[in-house]
Amino acid sequence: MTDRFVIISYAIIYILLFSACGKNKSKYSETADKEKVFIPSELSVYQPFDDYKMDSMKIAQSKYKIYSIIDVSCGSCVGSIKLWKEFDFYIKNKRASIILICHSSDSFQSFEYVMESDKEFKFPYPFFYDINNEFISLNKNYLADKNAIAILTDENNKIIHTGNPIDSNRDKNRFLEIINN
């Protein structure tokens, strides 16, 4: 089981890194169609549940990806996982994956305890640990707006839209319009 986990972790990191390889960081603009999300080299996969909508390989190959950052040392932030689970219900035909990039001030211990003891949080995708907070550093231009907690990209990590689809109906409708059409 451990070898399989390590292989899958390295495979997704390799695929995600390869898709962002050689690109320069640039400022966010309204025409974000040329911008890309940058994936850190030090992400690790955490899979507390048995069955997932997609494994890490299929996530890397998704037509659309929704990236969001969650501070898992914050109780109310962990609660937003339920909102992402509800949002996932509206995604049709497995065309998109939700990639929750998790960072923590407590080495993920309290988060893992909650995930392993409270099955109400059962999320249909694995979680990705950003131990060194590199995702925020690499993508700070897109994450500067506190209202834009999510980045929607295509299969090549080109940014299509940013917003808050779990708290804003306007953003939710826009994300789903793009994904489901």
Structure description:
The structure is a single chain. It contains seven helices and six strands. Helix content is 38%, strand content 19%. The chain has a single domain (2-24, 31-180), classed as 3-Layer(aba) Sandwich (Glutaredoxin). The radius of gyration is 15 Å and the shape is globular. It is of the alpha/beta class. The relative contact order is 0.21. Residues 5-33 have low confidence and may be disordered. Strands 1-4-3-2-5-6 form a six-stranded mixed beta sheet.
Task: Using brief descriptors, characterize the structure shown.
6-stranded mixed sheet; 181 residues; 38% helix; globular; alpha/beta
Topology:
Layout: H1 2-20, E1 43-46, H2 56-60, E2 64-71, H3 75-88, E3 96-103, H4 109-117, E4 127-130, H5 134-138, H6 140-143, E5 150-154, E6 159-163, H7 169-180
Parallel strand pairs: 2-3, 3-4
Antiparallel strand pairs: 1-4, 2-5, 5-6
Largest sheet: 6 strands, mixed
Largest sheet, spatial ordering of strands? 1-4-3-2-5-6
CATH architecture level-2 label = 3-Layer(aba) Sandwich
Order of helices and strands: HEHEHEHEHHEEH
CATH homologous superfamily descriptor = Glutaredoxin
Tally of helical segments? 7
Tally of separate domains: 1
Radius of gyration: 15 Å
The total strand number stands at: 6
**Quick one: overall form?**
globular
Report the uncertain regions.
5-33
| Helix and strand composition category | alpha/beta
Specify the CATH class. Answer: Alpha Beta
Rounded mean pLDDT is: 79
State the CATH topology: Glutaredoxin
Q: Approximately how much helix is present in the residues?
A: 25-40%
Strand content: 15-25%
Distance N to C terminus? 38 Å
